[in-house]
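Field guide to reading this record: the first block holds the primary sequence, the second block holds the structure written as discrete tokens, and the final block holds curator observations. Each block starts with its own label. This record concerns DUF4349 domain-containing protein, catalogued under organism Leucobacter viscericola.

BLOCK 1 — SEQUENCE
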Amino acid sequence: MKRHGSLLALVAAALLIAPLSACAANPSSIGDTGGGRPASESTAESGAPLDASQKMTDSAPEAGQSVIQNGDLTIVVADPTKSADRVTAVAEKLGGYVESQTISKASGSDPASASLSLRVPSAKVDEAFDALAEVGNVTSQNRSATDVTAQHVDLKARVAALEDSVTRLKELMSGAATTGELIEAETALSQRQQELDGLKAQLKALEDQVDEATIWVSLTTDSVIPGGPSNFWDGLLAGIASLGAAGAGALVVLGILLPWLVLGGIIALIVIAIVRSRRRAKTRRGEAQPTAIPPAEHTTPTTENM
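BLOCK 2 — STRUCTURE
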């Protein structure tokens, strides 16, 4: 009984030590999470690329600091498809890769375009923006940095505490004297292992975001007419498409007006019928009245002198 009681006490202690160790390892997680720095830093610009003084090298992460960097660019190019290949080459040259890519061909009044999501090492973000600026005319770009040092430290501490708890539970299992003690230890170990796997997945995802920055690149073409086609062929296709759109619009208008036209025709027929009936009635009344005979003229005979 004493051995059984001591084993239960050790299991309970193992279950309690892990969360207490995690909290004690990072007391700053309850309160200020910025570590003396703003939670996020961002810069934005429209037109030319950022000057050296505006780049984020002056706010590079310090030793032991965990920062997630993101950015996006809008670039006007002549051919989005070829430019997408150049953007891919830039990412691969810097040791990164293209996470996703979408290319849209010109259709009617919609010009060709492409969008790419790049992952590049965080230490080479400035190089990536400089290289991407050479692909075409940068019309806008945004950059942001989020300090996640407190969250990173907290996850690492919780993972370490759970690993210690799992190790102790395995030791308790090896010294279990009865089946009940073994089952109880296995249940606690399974719960701790599940929590440990989840925290390790969160930690890996966070570290991936810290190690590799995400850059969204949007490639568009410049149009001769603002908002219109960029060349003769696109303009011709847009004109043909507009004919179909005009025909479809005319059919829609006809469908809207048709009930009103039918109603107006019915009203017009009723009015015409009433007018004709009144004219016929007047004509009949005129024919029914007798025609008055004018009186004969009275003439006085004259006597001619012989």
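BLOCK 3 — OBSERVATIONS
The beta strands are 40-46, 67-77, 97-104, 113-121, 137-147, 212-221.
Residues 1-7, 16-59 have pLDDT under 50 and may be disordered.
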